Structure formats: structure tokens, C-alpha cells
Amino acid sequence: MKKIVVVFSMLFTLIAMNAKSHYPTADVEKHDIAVLVIDMQNDFVDPKGKLCVAGAKATIPAIADLVKFGKSKGWKIVYIVREHRTSGVDVDAPRIPLFTDGKTGYCVPGTWGGAIVDGLSPEKDDLIVAKSRNSAFFATNLDLILRRMGVKTVVLAGTQYPNCVRGTANDAMSYDYETIICTDCCSAKTPEVAEANIFDMKNMGITCISLDEVKALGASNTK
Questions:
Q1: Best CA proximity match to 142, nearest among 113, 171, 109
Q2: Ranges of the chain whose pLDDT falls below 70
Q3: From CA 27, how far away is CA 167, in angstroms rounded?
Q4: Which CATH number do you get for residue 178?
Q5: Is residue 182, in this structure, part of any structural domain at all?
Q6: Contact, 176 vs 202, CB < 8 A?
Q7: How far, in whole angstroms, is CA 80 from its chain's centroid?
Q8: Distance CA 149, CA 76 (A)
Q9: Phi first, then psi: what are they for 213, rounded to 5°?
Q10: Residue 212 phi, psi dihedral angles, 5° rounding
Q11: What's the domain range around 174?
Q12: Residue 223: HSE in the Cβ half-sphere, 13 Å Cα cutoff
């Protein structure tokens, strides 16, 4: 009886090992690092946008540079975008007035305001993840996608510091991703707001470094 149990145990072990080695998720693209480009949409970046962040437009070249560098290193590029229904039923409560009394809201899919700004054009292999709140992780499948690809580190770029950048960074850290803020690639309404948020996030243990420093850290990373 003991020999039979041992044989069955060995058989099940071999079956499990074989199944694991051929499990379909092993065939999905793998990346150690992902760049999250947050809310770089016309309504937030362009001066004609409904919620323009003063410092956002100036970061476009740096973000494009980060994306180019990331691609050269095999990092996954993920564009995070706001999307809201015209009724405002899915928007943050304080911004509901932007959708009522005849107002058309912001970041509505299919509108100019909801489009990603010129100078940052997602390519075929890039991902676009839509959200309706500050954090890119809240009520989205971002964490599921990143874990499927084996991502361990996220590099954040985009706008703006106190809302979507910080909210996403906090959740990324809570989900145990190594979280890096690329300071040349993020923005706020004023330099003072940016500096205050960088100060806070550094004290939380979030890495906040320049684009050159990001490149230096990634210089030897090829996956």
C-alpha cells in the first residue's frame, strides 16, 4: 500500500510539473519594468483643455524621451487615460458639476479633450488602460495585466502630482511594485505643488529621481 501511495505521489508531481511548464501564461510577453504614462490627454495638458495643468505641456518631450528609452530596454509602455460618460455618473463627486446643467464634461471618449496629446502616440504594442478615478489601479485591470507580464517595477510619468500621479504611486507601492517617479516627466499646477508632493512621496519610501537617473538605473536592464 505504501509503495502505491509513493508511486501515485510521484505521478501527480510529474503531472503538476508538466502542466506548469506548459501553462499558457508562460507564453505571454514578459517585462521586468513598465512605464506608466498618466493622463497625458488634451483636457489636462493643452491650454484649451477643460482642466489644464499648467506644467503638463512642458513635460511632453521628456516623457517621449523616457518612452523611447524604455522601449530600447524592453520595458512595457502603458498609457493610463481618464474616461468618463457624458452623464458624469462615473466621475469623482467634486467634478460632477462639470457634467451637469448642460456642461459637456471632460475626458469623454471620442472627444478632442479625451485624446492623448500630440507628441505622445501609443504604438501597436503599447497598452492603454482606462480609469475613472485618480489611481490607475482603482477599479481597473492594471495590476492583473502587470502581474501577468511579470512586472516588478513601475516608472511613473504624467500629470498631475497631487492627484493621479500620487494616487497611482501610493497604490503601486501598496501592491508591492518598486515605484519610481520620474520627476522630469511629471507635473503640477505650480513648481511648489510639485516639490511638496515629491517631498511627501520620498518620505513614504517612493523613489523620485530625474530622467537621467532613471536612464542610469536602467542602463544595464535589457528586459
A1: 171
A2: 1-22, 220-223
A3: 32
A4: 3.40.50.850
A5: yes
A6: no
A7: 5
A8: 9
A9: -70, -35
A10: -60, -40
A11: 26-82+113-218
A12: 9
Number of residues that make up the chain: 223
Question: Is the separation of the CB atoms in 41 and 117 below 8 Å?
Answer: yes
Task: List C-alpha distances in Å: 105 to 84, 111, 114.
Answer: 8, 10, 10
What was the pLDDT predicted at 223? 46
Rounded Cα gap, residues 41 and 56, in angstroms: 10
- For residue 82, report the phi and psi dihedrals to the nearest 5 degrees: -80, 140
- The pTM for the full model equals 0.90
CB 88 within 8 A of CB 177: no
Quick one: cell of 46? Answer: 493643452
Hey, what's the cell of 94?
A: 467634486
Position 122 in a domain: yes
Domain count, the chain: 1
- By the 10 Å C-beta count (0-12 exposed, 13-18 middle, 19+ buried), 189 is classed as middle
- Cell numbers of 26, please? 508562460
